[in-house]
Design goal:
By secondary structure, the protein is an alpha/beta fold. The protein has a 5-stranded parallel sheet, sandwiched between helices. Helix 1 packs across helix 8 and helix 4 runs parallel beside helix 5. The chain is globular and about 45 Å long. It starts with a strand and ends with a helix.
């Protein structure tokens, strides 16, 4: 089975993806990690040295190659991945896409403590971070909601979320 988890930064795509992959006895991949391996530098460094446009170009090309070449996987896509080019359409063509939905308040609480590890928000202070999240969600949610399946992860444990996804996938 081919599965792509999408959602905003901090939604738990990587953590949940690893568990779902284990349930499915499949391989787990993180798109940002694949980019880091291919480019031999961190996503943060790519953003800082070459800019977001360059990063999105690398991301789009690697995503398409990955989706077309792998037979079974659970992939955690970056928060912006579905929103650029025709990425969401390509994801849906080759895999079952699952949107992990969270409220802006919960996203803020999760990201505030992780700012330094996330290049796109590392420079933002508290008030600006919340504005940034709210602004991006307004633009990104239309892409996220095109997923095959949406699960609200706000009030669920990681185990409950993974089991819900597993049950959805088995129902196909």
């Amino acid at each position: 089975m081919r599965v792509v988890l999408i959602g905003y930064m901090g939604s738990g795509k990587t953590t949940i993806g690893r568990i779902v992959a284990n349930y499915l006895k499949s391989h787990f991949y993180d798109l940002d990690e694949l980019i880091t391996i291919q480019e031999k530098q961190s996503v943060r460094k790519i953003f800082l040295e070459k800019g977001e446009d360059h990063f999105r170009s690398i991301e789009k090309n690697l995503l398409a190659l990955f989706l077309k070449s792998k037979k079974e996987y659970v992939l955690s896509a970056g928060g912006g991945t579905p929103c650029y080019g025709n990425n969401i359409s390509i994801m849906k063509q080759f895999a079952k896409t699952i949107y992990l939905r969270l409220t802006p308040d919960i996203i803020f609480k999760r990201l505030f403590t992780q700012k330094d590890q996330r290049p796109i928000i590392s420079h933002l202070y508290e008030e600006k971070l919340f504005e940034f999240i709210s602004h991006h969600l307004i633009h990104r949610v239309a892409f996220y909601e095109r997923a095959h399946y949406t699960i609200d992860v706000s009030d669920k444990s990681i185990a409950e979320i993974a089991l819900d996804i597993h049950d959805f996938l088995l129902s196909l």
